[in-house]
Amino acid sequence: MATPPAAPSAAASAPSSGPGTAPRPRTPRVVGVDTARGLAILGMFVAHLGLERHTGFLTPTGWFWLADGRPSALFATLAGTGLAFMTKKAYATGDAAELAVQRVRLLKRSAILLVLGWVLTALGTPVAVILGAYAVLFVLAMPFLRMRPAALLLSAGVVALVMPSLVLLSRYALLGATSPHAYAWEPAGQVAIVLPVIADLWSGYYPALSWLLYVLVGLAVGRMAMQRWQTQLALLLGGAAVAAVAYLSGAALERSTTGLVQDLVTIEPHADTTFEMVGNVGFAVAVLGLCLLLTTAVAPLRVLLTPVSAMGAMSLTVYSAHIVYIAVLGTEAVWNPVSNQPLIWLVVGSMVLATVWQVTLGQGPMERLIHRMIRPPAPPAPPAQQTWPPAQPWPAQPGYQGPQPPAGTPYQPTPGYPVQQPPVGPPPAQAGQPVPPGWPGAGQQPGPAAPPRQTPPAPAYPPSPPPR
Prior knowledge:
Helix content: 55-70%
Shape: globular
Radius of gyration: 37 Å
Oligomer: single chain
Strand content: under 5%
C-alpha cells in the first residue's frame, strides 16, 4: 500500500490492553479476543509488506485488499474491549476508589505508549505508527468508563455523525486537503502529520477525535456477556449488517459526487469519513464475534488457532518487533516489494516465537514490563505482631502475683478491652522486709505492720421463751 513518504497510510496496530502478570493469579484471557487481535496483526503485516499478485478474492493474494485500513480499525476497537476488561471490577461494583486507580494506570500506560510511539517513528520506517493515537484514545475514553453498553453505543453514534466530517472540513480549511495522502507532500502538511499530540488528535492518519468511535464500540462490546453464544452470534450478524449498509451507501454516494463532497463520503481506506469508519467498525465487530464463536464452540479450532491467539496476547511486543524488522529491511520493502518472502518470514517467525514464548514464559516481554511500570503501589504492611513477653520486660517484683502469659506466644489484645499493663510503683511491702534495691526507699525498714482489723462481735439477744 503506497502513500506519501512523510507518513504512509498503514494498517497499523496497537498493543494489547491491560494484560496481567504472574505470579499472582490472573483472570483467564478471552481467547477469542486474542485471536481477533492476532488476525489484525496478520492484516497489518500484509498491509505493510504484502505484494498483491492476483485479482481473484480466493486466490493466494487476491484478498490483500481487505488489509487496507481495516486492521488498524480492528485494533482500535479491541482497545476499547481491553479497557472494559481492565475496569471490569470498578464497573461491576461501582467502586470509585478502584476506578480512580485504573484511571491512573491508564494515564501511565498512555504516557509510555506515547514515548514508545515516538521512538518507533524515529526509526524512519514508511509506517504510520499508531501508538501515539492509541495513547490519546485511552485518555479520551476515560469519561465514558462508567457508562452502560446502550449509552456507549449512543455516544459512538454521535461521534460517528459529527466528528469525521468536522475533522475533515477543518483539515480542508487549514491544510487545503482532507486526507494526509494529499497534504503530506506539502511542508506544512508534513509538519502537521508528525506534530506530537496534534497529529494524534487531528491531522495524522489516525485522528483520535474521530477514532474514538472505535474505542467506544469496543468498550460497549466488552461490557456485554461475550461468553454467551447468543451474544457472539449477534455480534457477527449485526456487525456484518452494519458494515454492508455503510460500505454500500458510501460507495453509491461516492460515485454520484465530486470534489469536497466526495471526500466527505468516500469509503477509500483511511479516508476517515463517516461511511468508511462505520463500515470498518461493523467489520471489526463481525470479526470479533466470529473469533469468539470459533474459539468457544469448536474446541479443535481453539487449539489450531493458538499461534494466532499467541500473537494477539503479546501484540505490543510483536508490533514493535515488526517495526524494527521493517527498519532493517529498508523502505523499498514497503514501497516497491518484489516478492512476498519478507512477509512469509515475518508471519512464520512471529507465530513460532509468540507460541513458544507464551507456552514457556507466559506474558510477552513488553507487556510484562509495562504492567510493572503501571502497577499501583502495594498497600502498607500491617503493624508487627505483638509478642509476650515484651522485648524489654520489667524487673522482677517480689509480691506481684499477676497473670503471666506463656513466654513466646503471640499476644493479641481483645479490641476495646484495656490491655493489662505491668505494675507501676514500689512492690507491696511486707512487715519486717526491706524495700528491694532500685525502688524508692530502698534500704529502709518499713514500719510495723498495721494491726489486723477487728470485727465487732454480734449483739446478744435474749433467748426465746419455750413453747407452751
